Amino acid sequence: MVDYENLLDRVYSSLPEKKSSSERFEIPQADIFVEGNKTMIKNFDEICSRLRREPREVAKYLFKELATPGQVQGGRLVLQRKLYYKSVNEKIVSYIESCVLCKECKKPDTHTEAYDRNVKLLVCEACGARSPIRI
Predict the structure, then answer these.
(1) Which of 45, 79, 82, 105 has CB atoms 3.0–4.6 Å from 127's, for a disulfide?
(2) Could you give the CA distance from residue 87 to residue 62 in angstroms, rounded to a whole number?
(3) Which of 67, 115, 66, 103 is closest to 86 using CA atoms?
(4) How confident is the model over 31-64, as pLDDT tens digits?
């Protein structure tokens, strides 16, 4: 008679390996095109909705970090300078790390609350942590 442990080993060895990622949050990539000396992020509204942030808040951060003026037109962001794909996406990642992901549990389930003039609180809906962020 075959014992239970051997049967379990046989079943587990015949199962396929798990191929999907355990991450439910993927960092959105900007869809960028350059027109003259302007850089446009076509999917800016989609990025903001996936991050659950206001477009003007994300735009303000990008204007400051990329050192360029710009404006939100419709669902896209227009930057008044020629920029590379890599540099824009690096700034989006830095925004996510500093203003979206929880400092304690590293989950994206956060929202911001007004605290002071230039300071907001990042409130985690998963663990309840609160941390100040400067925007």
Answers:
(1) 105
(2) 11
(3) 66
(4) 999 999 999 999 999 999 999 999 999 999 999 9
pTM: 0.78
Within 1-135, strands assigned E span 32-35, 38-41, 70-73, 76-79, 110-114, 119-124, 130-134
Decide: helix, strand or coil at residue 71.
Answer: strand
Q: Are 37 and 80 in contact (CB under 8 A)?
A: yes
- CA 12 vs. chain centroid, Å, equals 36
Contact 66, 48 (CB under 8 A): no
Would you kindly state where each structural domain of the chain is located, as residue ranges?
28-100, 103-135
**Per-residue tokens: 67:** 């050192």
Q: List phi, psi (to 5°) of 36.
A: 65, -125
The CATH number corresponding to 28-100 among 1.20.1050.10, 3.30.70.380, 3.90.180.10, 3.30.30.170 equals 3.30.30.170
